Amino acid sequence: SDYVVGVSGGIGSGKTTVTDLFAQKNIEVIDADVIARQVVEPNTPALNQIVKKFGPNIVNSQGQLDRAQLRKLIFAKPELKNWLNDLLHPLIRQQMLEQTQQAKSVYCLLSVPLLVENNLVNLVDRVLIVDVEEQVQIQRSVLRDNSNEQQIRAIMQAQVSREERLKVADDVIDNNHDLGHLIPQIDKLHLEYLALADLTK
Ligand code: ATP
């Protein structure tokens, strides 16, 4: 696709729910979380570098990266964290560009939870933010992840605020209500994006 809509929102805001609805209209969805796992699959150059740096115990018997262990090892170690980000971020960015360019739909969605945090707004043609009130966000996340309010609040603290996210939005989806309230918003945006994509041709 020549037209890329970046989708973002905080934890439990409804990014997946929203992108699934666009996918039902045959719009291709590229997910940054999937790409972040792809670049460290067994036998990739990036994983080989990580093994060199952290030792062979950072992968399990199937050769897969032990993400939980890696997270613990870099926790509160800015040097290691930076080393890892410098290795992975350019690869992830490159894959985002390649996969969006290869998408066949008139426009495509690039779902990036940390779009604002990781300075990726300039990678997309338009920014769509899925917005919910904090109370709703916490309630839905706790239900889904089987976690408690404190854990969800800690993750929210590490993300930009709702206000900062809304500042970069071209479009906002209000996901405070039920599906019946969500679907008409998707239908309207879909028509808008088809028209915008058409203009870039
Ligand atoms: P994360 O980034 O944390 O993975 P997300 O932004 O992709 O989350 P979803 O997984 O789509 O969010 O939604 C979070 C939870 O809230 C899910 O359990 C989902 O089914 C539920 N949910 C999303 N939208 C609604 C809605 N409009 N009404 C009721 N429940 C909803």
Automatic annotation (TrEMBL):
Classification via HAMAP family: Dephospho_CoA_kinase
Entry EC no(s): 2.7.1.24
Function: Catalyzes the phosphorylation of the 3'-hydroxyl group of dephosphocoenzyme A to form coenzyme A.
Record's catalysed reaction(s): 3'-dephospho-CoA + ATP = ADP + CoA + H(+)
Entry keywords, A to Z: ATP-binding, Coenzyme A biosynthesis, Cytoplasm, Kinase, Nucleotide-binding, Transferase
Keyword Iron listed: no
Record: residues binding ATP: 12-17
Principal location listed in the UniProt entry: cytoplasm
Pathway given in the UniProt record: Cofactor biosynthesis; coenzyme A biosynthesis; CoA from (R)-pantothenate: step 5/5
One of the record's GO molecular function terms: dephospho-CoA kinase activity
SUPFAM superfamilies documented for this protein: P-loop containing nucleoside triphosphate hydrolases (SSF52540)
Protein family: Belongs to the CoaE family.
EC top class, as a word: transferase
Keyword Nucleotide-binding in record: yes
Protein known as: Dephospho-CoA kinase
Entry's localization field: Cytoplasm
